């Protein structure tokens, strides 16, 4: 087929995505250099780096950066460690394995707003929640999760959502593991732990890297769970960068500062994306 | 203990542990499901009630209180609409890249993937302003456009990998028989990849249905899909757990079932084929 026709077939996708990337991004860059508040239209003078200065010196900025990183790293550790352990566990045959698998991956399909509300109300409510009931039954003081440990509460919600994703990927990857190799190792007297440590873990190295990178992209942008459950509070205690930017833009109407923050988030995500794309690209045969 | 006995015991223990953990992780969903059949009083009873006389009244009240069906319809229109639109745009692109790859094909694919990495919050402000200025704020059309663009890279990517795996010989045979390029696509490529297209579409519907960031920020009462409608139950006007659970159960049930069916595609789609 002629080159021109193949180009024509690709054109809609390529042009749309190009517009989707360039138009809003250049608007963000432009807004970040001007004074732009939705409450005071018409005063859009150039302010240079001022918006960035405002964003970085916002009292919530460093808290939000550290919250973003704590959230990211905790969820990554929880989902990868438990994900590897659980997928190795259910890789062995037992009764009802398919049902167990379905149960384990289900939380991934629960929409984030529902996720946050189930946990906020039915699990973590200090009076009527399941956790409070368990604490009381054990004779302990119930914990007010969302007020006393807001960030940890968000970590629990987000991990509950993403652990199934890790399990799903690792289970899929384990199915392609060489069983003959495992059997040979067993014949030679290798213990279960040795097989796990020296055969399974190396086999999972690549899937683990992929899970880490994909989760990172999503976890840097956690929003709905915070919006619904803690509203970023108390204070800034569970505010992450995404929520801080939302707060600047749609609650304080300061487009300039929010855009500066948005660019900051884009740079952060691009650092991760760079590595992810390299890893995926290596595997891509055209 | 003999070796077989030992092995049996091990299988039993593995099974028990797996079941226990699976039930633990599934418990919040089960609890939501059970609570949706309780009265509000039962829903907040201490200790929690596991056995109770089920009632269906919550489902009716949810419809009255928050016009559930309107929001469900919004979800259906936005997820199916954007999925169909994205498939129409993506199929030609994936087809030409899979069957007539050039030197740049790999770069284009990777570049498409990179657009997926752009954090939504980085372009929240301009998208919000563009939507406002074009009258797309709180409209289904606005969400359909956003969802289409959001999922286009994944859809192109998945279709590309399906098309690439089609046997080339069949296409050559069709060409020998004098099939036009158009006939080649409609009579050979599409029928052979119905399964692939269907599961790509399924994945896209799941992703749209559960999308929360844009739904929360770009819609209000009119076009809010279920994700945004459910968020209105977080208001502290009272404890409506039974109704919240009923609304959530209705909103999540179809997608959880969809999800069970497209596990494999989900892994491939979300990892861009890096894990098979």
Can you describe what's shown?
The complex is a heterodimer of chains A (286) and B (276). Chain A has 286 residues and is an all-alpha fold. Chain A has a single domain (33-283), classed as Orthogonal Bundle (MetI-like fold), CATH 1.10.3720.10. Chain A is built from 13 helices and no strands. The radius of gyration of chain A is 24 Å and the shape is flat. The two termini of chain A are 17 Å apart. With 276 residues, chain B is an all-alpha fold. Chain B is built from 14 helices and no strands. Chain B has helices at residues 3-35, 40-43, 57-66, 68-99, 105-115, 124-133, 140-164, 168-176, 181-192, 194-209, 213-218, 226-231, 241-261, 263-270. The interface between A and B is large, with 109 and 99 residues.
Supply the key terms.
heterodimer; A: 286 residues; mainly alpha; B: 276 residues; MetI-like fold
Topology, please?
The complex is a heterodimer of chains A (286) and B (276).
Chain A: H1 3-31, H2 50-57, H3 61-90, H4 97-105, H5 112-123, H6 130-137, H7 145-148, H8 150-175, H9 179-187, H10 192-219, H11 224-229, H12 241-251, H13 255-283
Chain B: H1 3-35, H2 40-43, H3 57-66, H4 68-99, H5 105-115, H6 124-133, H7 140-164, H8 168-176, H9 181-192, H10 194-209, H11 213-218, H12 226-231, H13 241-261, H14 263-270
Helix pairs in contact in B: 1-13, 3-13, 4-7, 4-10, 5-7, 7-10, 7-14, 8-9
Domain ABC transmembrane type-1 (chain B): 72-262
Family (chain B): Belongs to the binding-protein-dependent transport system permease family. MalFG subfamily.
Membrane topology (chain B): Multi-pass membrane protein
